[in-house]
Specification:
Layout (H helix, E strand, L loop, with lengths): L1 H20 L1 E2 L2 E2 L4 H29 L5 H26 L9 H9 L9 H18 L7 H4 L11 H11 L21
Antiparallel strand pairs: 1-2
Helix pairs in contact: 1-2, 1-3, 1-4, 2-3, 3-4, 3-5
């Protein structure tokens, strides 16, 4: 992930240099709004990847289990690198395909970051597996999807008694409010 972020930064620096040196219509192409947009979008994505990588590293240093966060950071950074080098080729225009310019090599080499140290697809499966394990560990596996997240007021329903009462009502085995008086009262998380 960090290598992909560094490579994207190097490619963006190259595009900045080229955009300031290349002239069209009597001025540097860096003055054109679409070129500026591509440069800005690339900077935004690189910064986001650097923040994700820094967060995962800080959490790992603190002793947290960061498998999911590290995989997410790697996936984002490598996919971001591909998007950034694509924009770099756009900034270079037709010259971006010529071997004499480094944009061609950036485009060719960036693909490998999505492959080694775990392909994007394998890491996505790992992320999902960790998410599903955490979900099951929280005890949500027995709650129907319609009742899992929020009640009608937007309050997160988490108490086991409420879940069981709601399950009985959904399955036709009773009134969800019976165990707590006339009306079930769903408490927010902090209650």
């Amino acid at each position: 992930g960090s290598a992909a972020a560094g490579y994207a930064r190097r490619a963006l620096d190259s595009a900045l240099r080229y955009a300031n040196e290349r002239k069209a219509f009597g001025e540097p192409i860096a003055n054109f709004q679409l070129i500026q947009q591509m440069l800005a979008d690339s900077e935004i994505e690189i910064y986001a990847a650097e923040c994700m990588l820094d967060d995962a590293a800080t959490r790992a240093d603190a002793g947290e289990n960061v498998l999911r966060k590290a995989a997410a950071a790697k996936v984002f950074a490598t996919e971001m690198c591909g998007r950034v080098v694509d924009r770099v080729v756009q900034v270079y225009g037709g010259a971006g395909y010529l071997a004499e310019y480094e944009a061609e090599r950036f485009f060719r080499d960036a693909r490998v970051y999505r492959i080694y140290e775990g392909t994007t697809q394998i890491l996505q499966l790992q992320i999902a597996k960790h998410m599903l394990r955490e979900w099951a560990a929280q005890g949500w596996a027995d709650v129907p999807a319609a009742l899992r997240a929020f009640d009608h007021r937007g309050v997160l329903v988490r108490r086991l008694a409420h879940r069981r009462a709601l399950l009985r009502a959904v399955r036709g085995r009773g009134d969800p409010g019976r165990s707590q008086g006339r009306r079930a009262r769903l408490r927010p998380l902090h209650a």
